[in-house]
Amino acid sequence: SIAILLYLARKFKTPDHWYPSDLQKRARVDEYLSWQHVSIRGKGSKLFLTKMLLPMLTGQPVPPEKLKSVTEELNVVLNQFEEKFLQDKLYIAGSEVSLADLVALMELMQPLGVGHDPFEGRPKLAEWRRRVEDAVGKQLFQETHEGLLNIKGL
């Protein structure tokens, strides 16, 4: 959870870019971390659950209108994310990767895990993803998300 991430960043005195000491940059990270609960997390999880869990529980395919509706909800928050948080910056808090970027990308990997690519047709979002992956390290990023990306095979 967010509280645990912030605790760990403070306790282990992680490099400043993860949770900046500069108050403006920190406020930007905090703003995103507060917003994401009901936006990207809420809508991304809803799509994930609709495409994965609902058919498993009911034994029925998801009605196309339901899938369209939850996909549109996710698209609305993706637009907000690009316009409000990414703007023309490299990362959410500016020129360096932060906890906000890690949390944001992790939430966007859920829909990807069930076959919905939130980065498709969104060059700004796709480029941001590449930068975050590079900052973390591609191998570590892939290892971390391997289970999620292979969940459809369960």
Beta-strand content bin: under 5%
Characterize the main sheet: none
* Spatial gap, N to C terminus: 25 Å
SSE pattern: HHHHHHH
CATH topology: Glutathione S-transferase Yfyf (Class Pi), Chain A, domain 2
Main attributes of the structure:
Glutathione S-transferase Yfyf (Class Pi), Chain A, domain 2, transferase, mainly alpha, 7 helices, glutathione transferase, 154 residues, glutathione transferase activity
Short description:
This protein has 154 residues and is mostly helical. It has helices at 2-11, 23-35, 40-58, 64-86, 99-113, 123-136, 138-149.
What does this structure look like?
The longest helix is centred in the middle third of the chain and has 23 residues. The protein has a single domain, classed as Glutathione S-transferase Yfyf (Class Pi), Chain A, domain 2. The protein contains seven helices and no strands. The model has no long low-confidence stretch (mean pLDDT 92). With 154 residues, it is mainly α. The protein is globular, with a radius of gyration of 16 Å.
List the helices and strands and how they pair.
Elements: H1 2-11, H2 23-35, H3 40-58, H4 64-86, H5 99-113, H6 123-136, H7 138-149
